[in-house]
Write a structure and sequence with these properties.
single chain, about 1150 residues, alpha+beta, about 15% strand, elongated
Length: about 1150
């Protein structure tokens, strides 16, 4: 050890005596840190979360202020980014500078850890921090992780230094580290809890030593008893909480819908406590026992001696700082809604009771903290308090411009974390870190942690002098300080590594970036362990015994064994047969196997003079060298190659490269057509997930002529450049017409999520199949008969799946796994889950720029929208809805029909009923209840979303009971007459699949559009089959999704052939006592672009033979003459009397008025034609 220490302390050259080898190595590590963090920093697309941070920081930089929201974590990052923007400008590169600087500072901090990790341990830990996939990736990412990592490593250093030398300085450093953390992210509560638990245990160990008590009699034993009672009751409280606590888990769809920071909705909507009475009883008992133990401790140990305990100092600094921020726990016991955003804080001004309760709880915790601090040490308390609360207040209030920020920080931050613990954003399984993140990326420090445990528990240490000061240890060598502080260092890092894993597995949102907090303490203790191996190896003996050849043999052996394992677990195992692929597998396997055997023999020869201890240490060091190579490979690939691809698991919602490609086109077109950034641009910000807003709001910040939209409308035609979210793909084409070029991109994508469902429930009474995947070594999982572990067992027992997983781990290659699973959505082009977007560029502008069109285009060559120029502004003169004096309560109304007396029948689909209204909107009658045949038995007059409705010549009312797949007949006053139809694929005339449209001709024949079976079925008035026509196809007379049907005064039948985007007409012909419907006309409809469940158009014909159809997701009505020429079009998206939310059913009354149901805004509208 002395030789190695001496080598590190030697100058690198006689001309540079101050620069030792240790300094040179660490300088190289720091150079690597700088290069790896800054290299190619701007290329990666800003993710959803990054763009939130960058954009709101940009607003602050522009002087538009900042309001703290716990959803976006602490204010430190926003202020740091605003300063960087001011100094260096605004770009992706500059936005990542603060994260980079703190990541580099985290590596630099390891230099001060030499006294605890040893010289070599600190150097290795620094290098591991540089190459760690998570430390590198999130050291270049606009999140709070790098700030938190730095504050954490400083906090632990301050704790160890104060335990070592005492004084005041390291208490102040601890307070500053806590200030950075609490102004950065809510993980501060977890870090603080971890620190307090460790310090409490440390403190109890120190004060439990009998020789330190000045008054033992009665006090010591009572203290131990009450302390045990405290631990017992606290354990019971935690256990009952875990057993009774209910968590709400989001679905995958909700997970892939990031929160909108501008919606003003607080994550906490109730003040109800989730704690059971038993938890509160045990918690109260634990608190009483704690007070009793404190009383007997002060009596027997003395207050003065307690104040001199260094761990007591650390407990008081940390405890008094965090105590006021724990007031949400007290507030949560009341019925008061906890304020977590600025709006809710300001709203307290109108709620005196809530204001008094919340203010009282916060004031109470502050008073307790102040009193406790003054009793402890007034000087230290006030200084540490000011070091924490001054920057806390300045940052949360943005230099006193947002006073509500102090309360959202001190109360709302913990409230946000409580919600994230209750609602697991991401729905990640409990094994997310154990089986996914750590094995894929941070396997080296995970293995290193167990190596450290082995070495630490075997190490023998000498007694450590107590109450040393900084002067006492200042002259000691690093090796001596490492020896003196080993117990504290080892205990703290082991505790921090394991408890971080447990804490973030349970008390968090289980997202990839939290792996960062699990990783860095494991890296520190791994550095210590590897440094320990170097320090304890007899390198002189190694050097004298064929060191180079031995190292080479070890390397060859490890590589060969790894290759043997890889090939043995390939898709084709060796020695399986004589087929060409089997022989190739055998041949590939034999070479590394032979190399492994030869290297093993060589090792046996070279190691004859080695001690086993030295060989063991060297072998482990070489093994970790290979793990380091694999780690570097994983880091390099994730950071510089596949950083925007969903093949990586260390980001949850990746921004795809299409985002920057779209922005590059926008900038080029804007500069070439406007000379600046004045391009007329629109982007989709539709609810509920804000569309493409993030990260486009960040990237579009310099465009001066931009607008956002929720629903695509014709007004978008004024925009040259339109970015559309996937959910509006069906709605955009009718809104903007044919005059645009279209480009498709992936906006955001998520990692493969097959790991979500590794365990299923099963019927324990059913025996396992003989091909059940959990066989062989995995058979023990059959013992739990109520669970199916086959998906997990396939990882080990299915060669194809196992090989695919190895390829994913090693190369991020999903092809073998996709083949084994029969998946076609795991290549980059077809990746799922993903969120896609479209870019539309107006053709008249694109034709001016040759590379955005096939060639310069003349206006005559551009496909014309036949509805262009046909729009009229037509407002409803009568509306029936819930706001009128005699309210009509509707829920997704569909078809409507008129009786001869002028009254109206409406299919109120999602209220599962029929409404009968008079001409003034008064409800004359209603009938129908819900039944689906599953939860509620189907009966006469029950419905499961009635869509179509028609009135016969005799006044009978016919209704398509769509999802019960039948037609029902009623009298004019709603009495059930009969029903016919069953679910089917058209095997019989009555086999319906989601019938929708309905019409009755003058002779009482009933026409049913059997939508799912692509046909029209005709019955007599009593439901007896007459004929049918249609079928699936595009030829005349065939259909694709027929919906609306109408019959004119001449008996001609009109059908909305929805997905073929046309209207077809049929004429009835009597032929040999058979009724036949022959195709007559057809014309195209520029509309009906979407295939959603709501985009089902209905049709009506008036006495002038004009045809009216709805375009539901085009928010309009189109009128045609009898030849299919567009007469007029009216409507757009909106809730005005001239607009629709979902134009659905349509009918013409006896006076020629056109009536339309709005299935989104739940109203019936009457239009009088010009």
């Amino acid at each position: 050890m002395e030789q190695k220490t001496n080598w590190l302390n030697r100058p690198i050259h006689t001309a540079l005596p101050a620069i030792t080898n240790e300094i040179a190595i660490f300088a190289f590590v720091m150079l690597l840190a700088v290069v790896t963090r800054f290299y190619d920093l701007e290329s990666r697309v800003m993710s959803h979360d990054e763009s939130l941070h960058t954009y709101f920081s940009w607003l602050l930089y522009r002087g538009q202020g900042y309001e703290h929201s716990p959803m976006m974590h602490g204010p430190f990052q926003f202020h740091a980014l605003a300063i960087v923007y001011f100094l260096f400008g605004v770009s992706d590169f500059t936005a990542r500078i603060p994260a980079v600087l703190f990541s580099i500072a985290t590596v630099a901090m390891v230099w001060y850890w030499r006294r605890y990790l040893g010289n070599w341990g600190a150097l290795i830990a620094g290098l591991l921090l540089v190459i760690s996939p998570y430390m590198l990736y999130y050291g270049r990412y606009v999140r709070n992780e790098s700030f938190v990592g730095f504050s954490g490593i400083v906090m632990l250093y301050a704790m160890l230094r104060h335990l070592e030398v005492g004084g005041k300085k390291y208490l102040y450093i601890l307070a500053a580290a806590l200030a950075l953390h609490f102004t950065s992210k809510e993980t501060s509560f977890i870090y603080t809890a971890q620190a307090l638990l460790f310090l409490a245990f440390y403190f109890v160990v120190q004060v439990s030593k009998k020789e330190r008590w000045f008054q033992l009699e009665g006090n010591y034993s009572t203290f131990i008893i009450t302390l045990c009672a405290t631990i017992l009751f606290a354990t019971a409280a935690v256990t009952t909480y875990l057993i009774t606590h209910q968590e709400t888990t989001l679905t995958g769809a909700e997970t892939a819908m990031p929160a909108n920071p501008e919606d003003g909705i607080s994550p906490l909507t109730t003040g109800e406590s989730a704690s059971s009475p038993l938890t509160l009883i045990f918690g109260g008992a634990a608190l009483l026992a704690l007070v009793a133990s404190a009383y007997f401790l002060i009596r027997g140990y003395s207050w003065e001696k307690l104040r001199n305990e260094r761990s007591f100092d650390l407990l008081f600094v940390t405890g008094t700082i965090v105590l006021p921020q724990l007031s949400p726990f007290l507030i949560n016991l009341t019925d008061v809604i906890m304020p977590t955003d600025v709006g809710q804080v300001q709203a307290l001004a109108n709620d005196t009771r809530s204001l008094l309760i919340i203010g009282g709880m916060l004031l109470l915790t502050f008073v307790i903290a102040i009193v406790a601090g003054l009793l402890w040490n007034p000087e230290k308390f006030w200084k540490t308090t000011l070091i924490f609360w001054v920057p806390f207040t300045i940052l949360y209030t943005t230099i006193f411009t947002n006073s509500s920020g102090f309360f959202t920080g001190s109360i709302g931050s913990l409230g946000y974390w409580i919600v994230q613990q209750d609602v697991q954003r991401g729905s990640q399984p409990w094994y997310y870190y154990l089986l996914i993140q750590i094995p894929i990326y941070e396997f080296l420090p995970a293995v290193g942690l167990f190596l450290a445990l082995y070495l630490g528990f075997r190490r023998k240490t000498n007694p450590v002098p107590e109450n040393q000061t900084e002067e006492d240890v200042q002259s000691l060598e690093i090796a001596q300080t490492e020896e003196l502080n080993f117990k504290n260092t080892f205990a703290l890092l082991v505790w921090w590594s394991f408890i971080s894993f447990v804490a973030f597995t349970y008390a968090g949102e289980r997202m990839p970036w939290l792996t960062y907090h699990i990783t860095w303490p494991m890296i520190l203790i791994t550095g210590w362990a590897l440094g320990r191996l170097i320090d304890t190896t007899n390198w002189q003996a190694v050097k004298e015994n064929n060191a180079a050849l031995t190292f080479f043999s070890i390397a060859v052996f490890i590589v060969s064994i790894g290759r043997v394992f890889y090939l043995w677990n390939g898709p084709t195992r060796p020695f399986q047969g004589q087929a060409l692929d089997q022989l190739q597998a055998t041949n590939q396997f034999l070479f590394p196997l032979i190399a492994a055997i030869i290297s093993a023999v060589a090792l046996f020869y070279f190691l004859r003079k080695w001690s086993f201890a030295d060989f063991r240490r060297v072998f482990v060091l070489v093994f970790f060298g290979f793990l380091a190579i694999l780690t570097i490979r994983a880091s390099f690939r994730a950071t510089y190659i596949t950083y925007d691809q969903a093949t990586e698991f260390l980001v949850y919602a990746h921004g795809a490269t299409g985002i920057k490609e779209v922005i590059a086109q926008a900038e080029e077109i804007s500069k070439r057509t406007t000379g600046g950034m004045n391009l007329a641009l629109a982007y989709d910000a539709s609810a509920p997930d804000t569309g493409v807003s993030w990260p486009f709001v960040w990237y579009l910040r310099d465009f001066t002529n931009q607008r956002s939209f929720d629903q695509p409308t014709r007004s978008l035609r004024d925009s040259v450049f339109i970015i559309v979210d996937e959910k509006n793909f069906d709605k955009i084409d009718p809104a903007i017409g044919p005059g645009y070029y279209r480009f498709d991109y992936i906006r955001m994508w998520w990692p493969m999520q097959d790991y979500f469902s590794l365990v299923y429930d099963r019927d324990p009474s059913i025996p396992f199949d003989e091909n059940y995947a959990c066989s062989g070594a995995m058979s023990f999982l059959k013992w739990r008969k109520s669970k199916d572990y086959s998906a997990f067992c396939q990882w080990f027992t299915d060669p194809a799946v196992r090989s695919g997983i190895i390829q994913i781990w090693l190369n991020r290659d999903y092809s073998q796994y996709a083949l084994a699973k029969g998946r076609s959505d795991l290549d980059i082009a077809n990746w799922q889950p993903s969120d896609r977007m479209r870019l539309y560029i107006r053709q008249d502008i694109a034709s001016q720029i040759w590379n955005y069109g096939l060639a310069p285009t003349t206006p005559a060559e551009v496909l014309q929208d036949p509805t262009e120029g046909k729009y009229v502004l037509l407002s409803a003169d009568t509306v029936f809805d819930a706001t009128q004096a005699n309210p009509v309560i509707l829920n997704a109304p569909r078809s409507l029909a008129f009786a001869n007396n002028g009254t109206m029948y409406v299919a109120d689909s999602r209220n599962h009923r029929v409404l009968h209204l008079d001409a003034n909107g008064n409800v004359l009658n209603e009938w129908g209840t819900y039944a689906d045949g599953v939860s509620v038995p189907i009966g006469d007059g029950t419905f499961n979303e009635p869509w179509g409705i028609a009135v016969g010549p005799d006044g009978s009312v016919y209704v398509t009971d769509t999802w019960n797949h039948r037609v029902q007949k009623f009298t004019r006053d709603g009495r059930f007459v009969k029903a016919w139809g069953v679910f089917g694929q058209g095997e019989t005339p009555e086999s319906f699949y989601g019938p929708r449209g309905l019409a009755v001709d003058a002779e009482g024949r009933v026409y049913v559009t059997d939508t799912g079976n692509k046909r029209i079925v005709v019955f007599d008035a009593n439901g007896n089959f007459i004929t049918q026509f249609g079928g699936a196809g595009f030829d005349p007379g065939l259909f694709d999704e027929p919906v609306g049907i109408a019959i004119d005064k001449n008996g001609t039948v009109y059908v909305n052939d929805t997905w073929n985007q046309r209207i077809q007409t049929f004429v009835p012909v009597e032929n040999e006592n058979a009724l036949v419907f022959l195709p007559e006309k057809q014309w195209d409809v520029f509309g009906w672009f979407g295939q959603s469940l709501d985009n089902k158009p209905f049709i009506a014909v008036n006495d002038d033979l004009h045809v009216f159809v709805t375009d539901p997701e085009g928010y309009r009505v189109m009128e045609f003459d009898q030849n299919g020429e567009v007469v007029r079009v009216w409507g757009d998206f909106g809730d005005s009397y001239a607009s629709f939310g979902l134009a659905s059913g349509i009918a013409v009354d006896n006076q020629g008025h056109v009536w339309v149901t709005d299935g989104s805004f739940n109203r019936i509208m009457r239009f009088t034609l010009p």
